[in-house]
Amino acid sequence: MDTEAPHTQRGHSSPGEGEERPRFAFSARGRNGAPARGRTSSRSPLTWRRAGLLGVICTVFLLLFSNFVVQPFLIPSRSMEPTLQVGDRVLVNKLAYRFGDRPGRGDVVVFDGTGSFVRERPEGNPVGVLLHGAASALGLAEPSDTDFVKRVVGVGGDDVVCCDAAGRVEVNGVPLDEPYLYAGDAPSTVPFRIVVPLGSLWVMGDHRSQSRDSRDHLGEPGGGMVPVEMVIGRADWIGWPVSRWGAVGGGHG
Fold first, then answer.
1. CATH number at residue 127
2. In this structure, is residue 88 part of a structural domain?
3. What does the pLDDT read at residue 100?
4. Residue 18: CA atoms inside 13 Å, Cβ hemisphere, count?
5. Which of 34, 132, 221, 232 is deepest in the core (most CB within 10 A)?
6. Number of folded domains in the chain?
7. How far is CA 191 from CA 79, 89, 122, 216, 217, in A?
8. Using one digit for the tens of pLDDT, what is the confidence trace for 131-150?
9. Domain assignment of residue 98, yes or no
10. 108 in a domain, yes or no?
11. φ, ψ dihedrals at 228, nearest 5°
12. Would residue 79 show up in a list of annotated catalytic residues for this protein?
């Protein structure tokens, strides 16, 4: 018997005879037999709507973080030179005094001066105030006119005197070593002697000749004392510019 013939016939059978082709096979060629070009998806990986939503989420997160944890604070004046320069962004630690700790002598603090340094909070357009508050909370605009940054010189119960025979500020009879003072500045040209009420702070700038601080409010209600509950937080770090990265220097204990 000739056994080769059947095999030869099967070998020339038409495609698909005796076997099932995949139902969803796609041709690799386009029209006229030309290779099909790769198709690009019409769906953009990141639409404008998604980008806008992501921007809103990031902004809300930063505002919440700034409101409760760490807030950038733009330094607007020379009152804290050389420790802080105009244009510095300091990072204010809002958790520093939230769990029982109190501001200590030498701490650099940011506080709301309403009722102590400023009689009343100035009124303004509500929308403008809201936008400015959001920008200042992100360190993009100058702080509110009621926010101040100063160094704590005396805490509740302290007897603060200026000045001793050598021209130094004394706290409880002990002269302060103040290496942070602006070069050439006297500790104070305004003589004073005060006892800081409990729950209050006596604060001064490091550039004493350029600082409006507790000394300037001695004759006003409150006598220049800042209530501890008005402290927003402690200025712990300089975050900007990069050339000034580092911790904010502390002072006397």
1. 2.10.109.10
2. yes
3. 83
4. 7
5. 232
6. 1
7. 19, 33, 31, 11, 13
8. 655 555 555 555 568 899 99
9. yes
10. yes
11. -60, -35
12. yes
The domain in which residue 239 lies consists of 71-247
For residue 154, what are the CA distances in angstroms to 61, 203, 228, 236? 36, 7, 12, 19
- Are 208 and 181 within 8 A, CB to CB? yes
pLDDT tens digit sequence for 70-85: 888 999 999 999 999 9
In a domain, 79, yes or no: yes
CA distance 6 to 8: 5
Q: Which position among 79, 116, 188, 200 bears the catalytic label?
A: 79
Closest CA relative to residue 90, chosen from 110, 79, 74:
74
| Contact assessment for residue 150 and residue 230, using Cβ atoms and an 8 Å cutoff | no
Low-confidence ranges of the chain (pLDDT < 70): 1-46, 59-68, 121-144, 250-253
Task: State the catalytic residue, choosing from 94, 116, 144, 150.
Answer: 150
Active site residue 136: no
Give me 212's structure tokens: 């409006």
Residue from 235, 221, 215 nearest 114 by CA = 221
